[in-house]
Amino acid sequence: MKRIAVLTSGGDAPGMNAAINAVVNKADDLGIEVFGISRGYQGLINNEIYPLNTKKVQGICRKGGTVLETARSQEFRTKEGRKKAVEVLKSHKIEGLVVIGGNGSLNGAKVLSKMDSEIKVIGIPASIDNDISGSDFSIGFNTACDVVTKALDNIKDTALSFHTSNEARIFAVETMGRERGWISILAGIAGEADLVIVPEKRSSFAKVVNRIKEIIKAKNDCVILFSEGITNADNFVDQLEAKLGHRVRSTLLGFQQRGGVPTITDRILALRMGVKAVESLKAGESAKMIAIKGDSVKTELLENNDIGTGSYDYYLDMFKHKVMGL
Ligand SMILES: Nc1ncnc2c1ncn2[C@@H]1O[C@H](COP(=O)(O)OP(=O)(O)OP(=O)(O)O)[C@@H](O)[C@H]1O
Ligand SMILES: O=P(O)(O)OC[C@H]1O[C@](O)(CO)[C@@H](O)[C@@H]1O
């Protein structure tokens, strides 16, 4: 393997830059040339490709987002688009490609790996949603949880300061994560939310309301964390106010969860995965994804699924009275 390329695709995630840095530095160690591709698969189709070296990626580990920029590409979903992508890689004599992205990007990597046996493709899971099967954690998830936990810490200061007021204080905070409640559950436990509502559990709206009433009766405040993937997430707070007859103060953290300086945990995860991806290409592997399992970084087959695995049930069951679903 003499020449490889790296791209980032789909939603950006904090730590993607550390993965790029590791790919370039490990390739340098092994005497492999590296090219960067801008704007994901669309940039690849458009031949937006340039040489990278260790100097160019110096100091990027601390940066959020991705220095390669990212995109979602309809054209790459077509066979014609993917053919163009292969032609571009071949025209630059690229023998291996590292795709850093979420489950869609990794599905794209799998399809690309079937196009031409001379081009090896390895995926690195990077998404704040942690919804990628095969790896316990994806790059960016830890940073997103950190943002949400810190927001909860701040909100709880107000909640606890109003314990003796006449009016019960109720706060509702929405998290990202698409159909998965990973961010809610981990940040909820760490930030001591009183109630976490995730899409994976089933309950009724009436039961959720009753649980909130119990919490208020017991301590006069309630901090609720709910996932964007629950049923009727958009109207959840309005419906709660109507049923409870109380004000519910709402916080939408939105894209704050996807950006910002990556935590050391995300940086180390990304660095380990970047190194493993280059080693895997060097060993001639293809159609594989880098995964963290327990404390080990491994290669797994790229599978066409998008539900995320890891030890999710363990966290859901830690404090049963604090977790409900809708
Ligand atoms: N089945 C597929 N076949 C070919 N390409 C795909 C496929 N699925 C996704 N892609 C490519 O990967 C790109 C990124 O996918 P997607 O928009 O689902 O984001 P993602 O990687 O899952 O990130 P996020 O975690 O932000 O959702 C798509 O725009 C498309 O170009
Ligand atoms: O607006 P966009 O870029 O499609 O991203 C929104 C989605 O991306 C994610 O942040 C994952 O990257 C989801 O949690 C969220 O719903």
Describe the structure.
It is a single chain. With 326 residues, the protein is α/β, with parallel strands linked by helices. The chain folds into two domains: 181 residues, Rossmann fold (3-Layer(aba) Sandwich), CATH 3.40.50.450; 114 residues, Rossmann fold (3-Layer(aba) Sandwich). The chain is 37% helix and 20% strand. It contains ten helices and twelve strands. The longest helix is centred in the middle third of the chain and has 21 residues. The chain is elongated. Bound molecules: adenosine-5'-triphosphate and 6-O-phosphono-beta-D-fructofuranose. 6-O-phosphono-beta-D-fructofuranose (F6P) binds next to loops.
Keywords summarizing the entry:
326 residues, alpha/beta, Rossmann fold, seven-stranded mixed beta sheet, five-stranded parallel beta sheet, 37% helix, binds adenosine-5'-triphosphate, binds 6-O-phosphono-beta-D-fructofuranose, EC 2.7.1.11, identical protein binding
> Secondary-structure element order, as H and E?
EHEHEHEHEHEHEHEHEHEEHE
Bound molecules: adenosine-5'-triphosphate, 6-O-phosphono-beta-D-fructofuranose
* Uncertain segments: none
Structural class label: alpha/beta
The fraction of residues assigned to DSSP E strands is 15-25%
User: Largest sheet, described in full?
Assistant: 7 strands, mixed
Protein name: 6-phosphofructokinase
Function: Catalyzes the phosphorylation of D-fructose 6-phosphate to fructose 1,6-bisphosphate by ATP, the first committing step of glycolysis.
Pathway: Carbohydrate degradation; glycolysis; D-glyceraldehyde 3-phosphate and glycerone phosphate from D-glucose: step 3/4
Main location: cytoplasm
